Amino acid sequence: MKVLVASHTYIVDLNCEKLRSLTKIDPNVEVTVVVPKRWTPGGVQSRKIETQPREEGRFRVVPISNFSENNQGLLSFGADIISLLRDFRPDIIQMEQGSKSVGYAELITLNRMLRLKAKNVFFTWWNLPYEVKFPLSLLEGYNLRHTDGLVVGNQDGADVLRDHGYEGPICVMPQLGVDECLFRPAEQPELMAQHGISPDDFVVGFVGRFVEEKGLLTLFKALGQLRADSAKAGVEKRVWKLLLLGRGELKERLAELAAELEISDRIIWIESVPHADVPRYINLMDTLILPSETTYKFKTLSAVGWKEQFGHVIIEAMACKVPVIGSDSGEIPHVIKEDGLVFPEGDAAALAEQIASLMYQPEQHGVLAERGYQRAMREYTNDALAKRQLEFYTSLY
Question: Does residue 73 form part of some domain?
């Protein structure tokens, strides 16, 4: 089976591990990854990226000239994509830019013109209802009519596309897996000492952007309640600390709230670190919390709002045997299931109760740590996702 996958996501080599795994689990699989020759990610990383070709046996990455350098939906490819398709003749063509992608329509059309007879597949994260107007309605309608299979990162996204008329096969799975060689349980005594963490401290952790929709204000209020409860009781059964790994526009407001709640001395602020160092910090945590909150402040051409689309840091923490707590925003409950704790988004009191339950009930802490780890290894490694993706491709024939 020859698989062609196109996305700007794979300009980062680490993100290619699942696709590499496709070639390792089946010697008959060849994978060609198409990436834009030039891409400007935006945000913190604003430097234009000039991608380079890579070839590793039956796996290769091929940069193709592109017409948009920073817009996922408008990303499309130059004439050199034609010769690549004609020479490679894929059995599967997967575009990972969503249902309204110009590039996906381009690949569908070339598939038909070149008579490749490949199955058309696309991936999307989008998980909120939306209305699409002319001319985008024509573009999405064309893409959906010619889609043989859909890979979607969350169940809500699958339901949304059913509502938009898609009736074909669907596979619900994240775009990227977790690297179990990088994210694994490992004691970090030197890093603990460096940040003033004692072995008896209970470390509450967060990894991500400091923005309102990530629920950090609720997390701070929950920890403020824990401090207030201890003060009221006149004794603190166990000292907790909050480890925040990330950066963002909300930091100043968070610092002010911490002062109001009298918890400033419990917070360890860590600027974003290289991805390879993230598991070291996760292994400092006794629990990782993702308190995301649905918002309708954001707008695009065809949609309004945001809710958590997956929460990749959850499976990274599970792989490190760190129990997780998450809100019920978006896909989080489906990722955690019964192998962690879930609270109503925005409910600081409920979150405080769940943190306390892990802090004061070591048996529950141990059970959830082990259950989360086992499911991460079973369902969310790159090898596990590659097997599911290959099974889905095979089912399309």
Answer: yes
